Amino acid sequence: MRRIFLPLIVACLAVSLLTGPAFAGSTAMVQLQETVDGILEILRDKKAPSDQRKQKISALVRERFDYGIMAQSAMGKHWRKFTPAQKEEFTAKFSSLLEESYLDRIDAYTDETVDYVKEREKRGKVLIETDIVTANKRIPIHYKLRQRGDLWLVYDVVVEGVSLIRNYRSSYGKVFKKEGFAGLIRKIDAKLNGEQDA
Amino acid sequence: MRVMIGWFLCLALVLGFPALSSNTIAMAADAAPAVEDEFEDDPFAEEETSVEIADPIEGINRGFFWVNDKLYFYALKPLARGWRVVPEPVRVSADNFLTNLLTPVRFTNNVLQGKAEGAVIEVGRLFINTIGGMGGLFDIATDMDLTTPEEDTGQTLGAWGAGHGFYIVLPVFGPSSLRDGVGRVGDSFLDPLTYVDMTYLEKAGVKVFDTVNYLSIDKDTYEAIKKDALDPYLFVRDGYVQRRAKAVKE
Questions:
Q1: HSE toward the beta carbon, residue B145, CA cutoff 13 A
Q2: Which residues of A touch B48 (CB under 8 A)?
Q3: Which residues of B97-109 are buried (b: 16+ CB within 10 A; e: fewer)?
Q4: Is residue B57 part of a domain?
Q5: Contact A152, A145 (CB under 8 A)
Q6: pTM score > 0.80 for this model?
Q7: Which of A153, B33, B226, B243 is packed most tightly, with the most Cβ within 10 A?
């Protein structure tokens, strides 16, 4: 009898060890996974009409991405030169631009899988490293999250070592310095209207 | 003989680097405090590198950027789109095959950077993929999680302490820098294709095929950048610097 039990116990232990890490993830990891997996699920549901899918994804993204702080970081030191009304207008336009480009691109990645590599905490903020596994390579995508109440919100995305917010900041800053607020908004509008060479 | 002259050229340029790179570092340090202040509550930003690079020939660079942009949309991309009629597994195998052939570039640069483990992994990958993966058509080493970051000569120069010098947009090849441009020359000496008995035109054909095939697998990355960056030139430049800095660090 013991001969049967021992392997059984070992097997149970092995299974619990193997599945352990999946449950041991932090709140930040669990919340990010919820969002990413939710998006993938909607994408794979090809039967639903496309604008309905976009709406659902948009709702998920808005829940998890802190557009306010992203807009602010994208402007960097120029942010405090904005009036409150300008801050609001810029944040709204910037969010639509981010969201639109994100939604346009994500369709291409429907068939890929996402690996959660590891997470790190530093001074209260969390960095989660993921890989998108495509046919011929792995694309590292890191999410930086910070806590707001019960929620962990993304404030920057780093793709292959390139921080989106940092990169935005250098070009937004230059446009603002050269063409002022009106010029900046004009350029974003042109992008939103799909003008390639704007 | 030509090879010798090439290496001397490389050496001369490398030796000339420290002066250039210390300039760049000084510039980046000057610019840093003003740019960083609103982002200081991001604890992970300090691990990332500055996106500053000297760009004294921005006018010329923007010109070539424009040319490359047209080349992409009117030549390479249409070819890549046409090539997509071939089933993806075949195109991925072609990519694997060409990547496997470039093992000497990655192996040598692992050695030059003193990365023994990386060098061993590259040799292991070569054997496994060439023998088990039918001449490199299948990347089974990656399926076995036997991977190591890709090293090239530009990264080796960076690991030895050479800075970028300044930003250069190469016609056809795209974003580069003085350092990475020299690195490209080094890479081409390590590329087995250089020593194959083919005409220059045939060799160029192989490279064009490699690019078109790669773009056929790629998910329109450049289109996305064009779409949401206010100034795609700056986005590509800053992205290039960050991506290369990460590659040198790995």
A1: 0
A2: 158, 161, 163, 166
A3: bbbbbbbebbbbb
A4: no
A5: yes
A6: no
A7: A153
B234 touches chain A (CB under 8 A): yes
Domain count, chain A: 1
| Domain annotation covers residue A95 | yes
Contacts of B93 in chain A (CB under 8 A): none
Q: Are strands B174-177 and A162-163 parallel, antiparallel or unpaired?
A: unpaired
CATH number for position A15: 3.10.450.710
On chain B, the residues whose CB falls within 8 A of the CB of A97 are 228
Q: What is the pLDDT of residue B4?
A: 42
Range of the structural domain that residue A27 is part of: 2-192
Whether A197 maps to a domain, the answer reads: no
Query: What are the angstrom distances between the C-alpha of A19 and each of A8, A15, A23?
Result: 16, 6, 7
- The reply to whether ipTM tops 0.85 is no
* B185 falls within a domain: yes
Dihedral of alpha carbons A112, A128, A99, A190, sign: negative
Do B229 and A171 make contact, defined as CB atoms within 8 angstroms? yes
Would A198 be classed as within a structural domain? no
Do the domain assignments include residue B139? no
Total number of domains in chain B: 1
- Residue B26 CA to residue A92 CA, distance in Å, equals 37
Interface of A with B in 14-73 (CB under 8 A): 72-73
How far is it, in rounded angstroms, from Cα B50 to Cα B55?
14
**Residue reference for tokens 């071939």:** B86
Q: What percent of chain B has pLDDT over 90?
A: 67
Distance CA A34, CA A42 (A): 12
Which pLDDT score is estimated for B135?
93
**Mean predicted confidence (pLDDT) in A174-198:** 84
User: Does residue B213 belong to any structural domain of this protein?
Assistant: yes
Q: Looking at chain A, which residue has its C-alpha nearest residue B142? A: A137
Nearest-angstrom CA–CA distance, A43 and A50: 9
